[in-house]
Amino acid sequence: MSDSIIDMTGDQWEAFLANLYERDDRLAVREPGGIYPPEEAVDPYVLSGHAEALRSAEVEGDVWGTLADLEEEAGDEEEAWAKVVAFYLDRGCVLLRVTDAGEPEEWLLEEGLARRLGLPGRTA
Fold first, then answer.
1. How does DSSP classify residue 76?
2. How many CA atoms lie less than 13 Å away from 35 in the CB half-sphere?
3. In what side-by-side order are the strands of the sheet with 5-8?
4. CA distance 104 to 56
5. What are 45-101's pLDDT values in tens digits?
6. Could you give the residue ranges of the DSSP H alpha helices within the chain?
7. Long-range contacts of residues 21-29, Cβ cutoff 8 Å, at least 24 apart
8. The organism sits in which domain of life (predicted)?
């Protein structure tokens, strides 16, 4: 499972987002020297539209709604998130964690998307 978890610092997270663009509802990595209009910039809100599930201080991820979609129950948010993570990791997704965030910053991405976005340990 550890190969399904990617840890980043806050600076790495910001650099990761800054290196992405969204065009026609598709995320991609910016090419060196390329010109990208400001409206193609990716921030956590844009990325959230491509995530399978998330837990973020900046973007509401609806952990409880996701858990209900999975037809699971939990006693608290930590247990709920653990069940969501287990469900998606069992289906080949990748957990991206920002390790030095003040509040949990965790994103579940489909493996193919993670690979296309050049996340560590994945090759396009």
1. S
2. 0
3. 5-8, 94-98, 106-109, 53-55
4. 6
5. 999 999 999 999 899 989 999 999 999 999 999 999 999 999 999 999 999 999 999
6. 10-18, 44-48, 63-69, 77-90, 111-116
7. 22/46, 25/49, 27/113, 27/116, 27/117, 28/116, 28/117, 29/116, 29/117, 29/118
8. Bacteria
Contact 122, 32 (CB under 8 A): no
Encoding tokens for residue 58?
Answer: 């900046």
Token look-up 């790495």 returns 12
Helix (H) or strand (E) run with residue 96 in it: strand 94-98
Q: What is the pLDDT of residues 23-42, one digit of tens each?
A: 999 999 999 999 999 999 99
